[in-house]
Amino acid sequence: MALLVYMLCSLTSLASSVLLLRGYREQRVRLLLWAGLCFAGFALGNILLLVDNLVGAAYDMSLVRSLPVLGGLAVLMYGLVLEA
């Protein structure tokens, strides 16, 4: 059941990223770019969380799966500061 939830979270983050980046391509509002890249990092983190649960306890991927989320948040914070 947990794998299904992680998969749905990954798909939702990926869909949000695609929609935000498509909106940026059409309207050229830079905040859409930063938010789209942030959600891309969230999607990658969720996919790595899914892989981590599939692999099991053989490998500790906690740092590897946290880095894309941290990168996405850093990109969003940079964009918010830059746009202000």
Provide a brief overview of the structure:
Helices cover 88% and strands 0% of the residues. It has helices at 2-27, 30-55, 62-83. Helix 1 (2-27) packs antiparallel against helix 2.
Structure description:
Helices cover 88% and strands 0% of the residues. The protein has 84 residues and is an all-alpha fold. It has one domain. Helix 1 (2-27) packs antiparallel against helix 2 and helix 2 (30-55) runs antiparallel to helix 3 (62-83). The longest helix is centred in the first third of the chain and has 26 residues, at 2-27. The model has no long low-confidence stretch (mean pLDDT 95).
Please give the largest β-sheet: none
Give the N-terminus to C-terminus distance in angstroms. Answer: 42 Å
Alpha-beta content class: mainly alpha
Mean pLDDT: 95
**Helix-strand pattern, N to C?**
HHH
Strand content bin: under 5%
Provide the fold topology:
Blueprint: H1 2-27, H2 30-55, H3 62-83
Helix pairs in contact: 1-2, 2-3
Key terms:
single chain, 84 residues, mainly alpha, 3 helices, 88% helix, elongated
